[in-house]
Amino acid sequence: MTKKTYINGVGCISTQKTFNTVFLEEAHVNHDNNVLAIVAPDYKEYISPAASRRMAKGVKNGIVASALAMKDAAAENVDAIITGTGLGCIEDSEKFLKSILDNKEEFLTPTSFIQSTHNTVGAQIALLQQCKGYNFTYVNGAVSFESALIDAKMQIEEDEVQSVLVGGVDENGDYTTALFKLNGRIKQDNHTPYDVLTSKTSGAVYGEGASFFVLENERKTNTYAELLDVYIINTLAENEVETEMKSFLKLNNLEVSDIDAVILGFDGNVDFENYYKNIAENTFAQTPVLYYKHLSGEYDTASAFAFWTASKILKIQEIPEIIKVNQISKPAYKTILLYNQLNGKNHSFTLLSK
Fold first, then answer.
1. Where are the alpha helices (DSSP H) in 9-56?
2. pLDDT tens digits, 134-154
3. Distance separating alpha carbons of residues 174 and 177, to the nearest angstrom
4. What is the average per-residue pLDDT within 285-306?
5. Which Pfam families does this UniProt record tie to the protein (predicted)?
């Protein structure tokens, strides 16, 4: 009998106030910025100021988000830490590359280089928690977080571990952001209002964040949801999404009518919005359709924010108005499907149930 995977603790640091507050109660939609910045927690509650000064933003946010998740799950320790990140600690990478240029490749200190590797976040969390178990970081574009989830789920099913800390972390760097604006990945400056659902322009509204989850093999009184399945596929045409999604549901003995809410990755990029629009308007025309990137912004591991949102909905059985695409509601929310892609690639389907 394979073990089931339960979400027993969540922690989220994002471009909204998603800590010390009721679920999305203090969230607001920003129409004026094309790049959203983190709402920072009080880091000194979690990290000594001396250590904090040397840490990248992503590392600090990861540490706080993982601490929140552990506290939420009432877990003293975990058997494994698995992180997903698209760009790693990009600010330190920028610093290092800049110092190579500024110093004409001489007299370099390796600090920024050491701190810029993608697995810095997982390593720092392990050091703080003294977790000497399996520690892995997936860098896999927009399915980095899902890759981490699949690994965690397999470890639990095979009884290799009983509890895993899984998270998705990305941060914004000024230089990288400027490049993304140049190549059209981020919406152009001074084109307000930046509305995600009604956008007529290409590029996305960008963000950053860190969301961590404690996954365990047993159900507890504070369990949020069960992670049923995760599926990733690199390339799909717009007209193939529905078929893939239905066969994914079928694998889990579900039909479209069994889904109580679907969370889609609308990010305001008109070039790829049809991936979501088609299924929102056809396949899921009778289902509550939700979105989240108008709150979190778009980044490689933004889907971890959606995972956090879904976990919360399943636990409190309510959907905040601010994330609704349509006005359909259900008497109870038992099964939620997440679908995300970025620029037509790296499609992921994730299923959670109460």
1. 49-53
2. 999 999 999 999 999 999 999
3. 5
4. 96
5. ketoacyl-synt
Is 0.90 topped by the overall pTM?
Answer: yes
Residue carrying the six token digits 């949020």: 224
Amino acid of residue 311: S
* CATH of range 228-353; options 3.40.630.10, 3.40.47.10, 3.40.30.10, 3.90.380.10: 3.40.47.10
Q: Write the class of the CATH domain 5-216.
A: alpha beta
Chain-centroid distance of CA 97 in Å reads: 27
- What is residue 85's predicted lDDT score, i.e. its pLDDT? 95
Answer yes or no: is pLDDT of 106 > 90.
no
Closest CA to 194 of 16, 15, 29, 31: 31
Tell me the residue type at 313.
I
CA atoms within 13 A on the CB side of 353: 12
Q: What is the pLDDT of residue 302?
A: 96
Q: Under 8 Å CB-to-CB from 253, ≥6 apart: which residues? A: none
Q: pLDDT > 90: what percent of the chain? A: 78
- Give just the sign of the alpha carbon dihedral 157, 159, 161, 163: positive
Q: What is the separation, in whole angstroms, between the first and last Cα of the chain? A: 20
